[in-house]
Every structure is written in C-alpha cells, then in structure tokens.
Amino acid sequence: MKVCRGLVSTLLCRVFVISLVWNTIVVNSLSGQQQQQHKKRPRIPILQYHDDWVCVDKPSGITVHRGNGFPRNKPVLTSRVKRQLSRKVFPVHRLDHRTSGVMLFAFDSTTAGILHDAAIRKGQKEYLALVRGHWKRDESVVFVDKPLVVKGIEKEALTKFTLLGTVKGETSQTDNEDDATAPTSSCSLLLCEPLTGRTHQIRRHAYSLGHPILGDTQHGDSRANRYWRKRKLNRLALHCSTVSFELDGTRHECHAPLPSRLKGILQSLPLWEEANRHRPSLALDAFDMIDGTHGRSYRKRLLEQNKENNE
Predict the structure, then answer these.
(1) Quick check: is 138 catalytic?
(2) Would you say residue 213 lies in a domain?
(3) pLDDT-flagged residues of the chain (< 50)
(4) List 51, 57, 96, 248, catalytic entry
C-alpha cells in the first residue's frame, strides 16, 4: 500500500512539473508572438509637429479612440500615437474607422479645445471621395443642403461637392447590360467640403446626390462595392486630404497625401490626368517626420539652434 502511494505521489509530481514547463513554454510563445505583432505595427506618419499639438496621417481601418464595448486587445490611434511620441495626446476631432487622412492631436486638454474651435468649427476641411457613377450634371460644383437626423434630432447639414474627374465605364460582363442598376466601372472623383459637422455627413449627402462613396457598407451601394472589391478596392474610398485653419495669428495647412493603394487605383483610372490638373496635390508622395517625438518647446529650441548656426 505504501509502495502504491509512493508511485502515485511520484507520478503526480512529474505531471505537475510537466504541466508547469508546458505552461511556461506556451506563455513565452504567446508573449513572443505579441512582441512580434507589436514590432510589425507600422509607424503612424507625422505630418506636422508643434509644441502643443501634432498632425498625423491616420490610416484606414483603425479607430481613433476606445469607446464603450471596444475590444481591449485591438489597437486604437490615440494609444498608437501616444506610444510613438512618448507623450499623452488628446484627439481634437474624429475620423471614421475606415476613413484615412489628416488627424489632429493636442498635448493637453486646453489646447485640444482651442484647436477644435479653430480647426473644426472655423477652419476648412477637404476630403477626396471616389464615388459611384459618371457625373452627368452640367455644373461641376454642387451644394447639398439636406438636414440629417443625429441621435433622433434633425439638424441642418450642408456639403459642397466639386468634380475633379469622371469616367464613363463599361458594364461588367457578368451583369445584365439592360439592368440600369448593374455595377459598372463608371466613377467620379469629388472634392468634398463639409460646411457643417454631422455624423457621416459626407457619406450620407453623397448617397442622396446619387453618387454613394465606393466601399461604404452603411450608406453605399452593395453591388458596386462588390464590383470594386474585386478590383482591389478593399476600403472606404474617402480620405481627409486637407485641414486648414488660423491659430494665434498664423495660418496652418495640414496636408495628407493619398495612401499608396488608393492612389494606385486612381492612377489606373482614365480620370487621373483630369483630376491631377484640377488638384496637383494628388501626386504628392507619402511624408513622415521620422524623427519621432521632439519633446516640449521644440520650435523654440529649433529657432535657437538655427540662430546659433547662423552666427
């Protein structure tokens, strides 16, 4: 009986040791994978860096900040920028999860409020949108003045759309050519200026205009989205290209070049040359202030350094 108990104790000890070693291996493996995933995350491009605020180029497919119910294991832009700059940041405004482009962050809450008033309420915002359909209107500039319901309340909303280029494509061979709703390669590139700030304003007004934004699963055309998805457009074709405003007597213009994949799709379309004539900034290459964080009083120190070099 004592021999049996000794064998059982020995076996239990061995099982315990084996399970402990196995758990250690699994934990180390998982932590190694997490580190690799963290290392693989690309930089968030820095477009402008100032003492009190920073302008970054938000990629498509990342949420600005963590809201209620948002998974803890998924990265958000605010955390990524904070980690990259080693400074706490405060988002000045929001961009949709699938929208790319100019995004402003302040380094303190007071500056965030000042910037929001200067850039978002009083400043000028310009978006580029690739939309469904050939532009048939005689005028190249259209204002959509249509109230939108936000959280059950109807609010005034006004958006300016300017045509940059359009192409009349052919119906897909897999679709019925007599079907007026059949998706085609017909599309237009629009410059969109929201003159009010409502939720999904550009996307909803573009849909009411009869030209929904390609890739928009909520306010768009599902058949057109499938058609363009086969042609490598796997995102919302909406990009915040410019935010311009005046702050402390200085005019600031923040430009975000087109993302490489979206730019490649546009360059493959016949409308590219026409659009590039109207908007030469479309051809701008990607930009990133790769120095990373510059710390506090960066501009002051830079001016002092330049002054010393000149002397």
Answers:
(1) no
(2) yes
(3) 2-3, 175-181
(4) 96
